[in-house]
Known about the structure:
Low-confidence stretches: 1-28
Oligomer: single chain
Amino acid sequence: MKNNSLFHLVAKAAIIVGLVAGLGSTSALAEKITVTDIAGRSVSLEKNPSKIVLGEGRMIYSIALLDRKNPFERVVGWKDDLIRFDPDHYRKYKAKFPAVDKIKNFGSPYSSEFSLEAVVASGAEVMILNLGKLLQAQESGLLEKLEKAGVAVLFVDFRQRPTQNTVPSLQLLGRVLDRREQADEFIDFYIQNMQTVLNRVEKIKESDRPVVFVERAAGYNPDKCCSTFGDANLGRLVDLAGGANWGSKKFSGHGGKVNPEAIFVDDPDVIIGTGANWAEANPATTAVLFGYEADDKMVQERLGNLAARKGWEELKAVKNGNFRSIYHQFYNSPYHFVALQTFAKWFYPDEFKDVEPEKTFTELHDRFLPIDYSGVFWGTLEK
Length: 383
């Protein structure tokens, strides 16, 4: 009888321990946190979600820094902009993670093609959107619909004000995805490489700074010219690298369209176009096809074609070896400090002779990404 009583007591204890353990793991899985996103919104959501949707596929640039073993493990849906506008990048990841081509394309969250039902059916817990789309998300009712469906929404920013919002965006993602250690490690690397430029540039007089014109997506549409950046994004990077961004004096905010005659009249000291592999999205493009599959020969050929446009060959930047181009996608990723270092070395080769942007970009890949460095991401037209 005593043995039976002892058996029942042990059995009850085991059941209680099991229940407590079960409750504990459920609680851990469903741990709620409240964060402030880059739009200033207070958001309550489950920590360490297993299923997320990216409002833009190129957000994988930042997710890859945190979920380094498999950046796509949590991603159940996205927009196909990475595939269309940075196919080199997509293929580089696909070679290592073949399952990436099974991620559902939900399209633009702000268009009629977007299906809220499909997002909910995917089991998504969180959707990550770009800060620049905040107004659209509000006016279209997207935010309200997602929240009613139980899908939390987070705004990050690597495009509008990248030098201001990259660190808090990564900190936010690190908290939500339970990757704070990885976020902090990369942020240290980011700050170190930004300061390599910023600390030196402070000593350069405004009057000594070269005037720099940045042609946004140079040659994307061969018959159209030109767009540039204001004092935000790559325009801001030009200023921080010790240049005087031409567009900062012409436009407030992100930038705008420019009549080529205005460029010819001002004749800037340095011209920098942006390019990427847009040949698949627009076969007619004459842009420099930078990326993981690019080569120097093609870069020089494309740069030569851009410089040969009517009127451009007479500009001093072309004549003096300052006609350059850089990877467009730096404008929308936490890797933009590589562009900052490249700009600084272009503007002040003697002051930054010890800075090697390609070495920096290679180290970024070796330490923080699951893919290796290859290809070409910037270049100067050779005389």
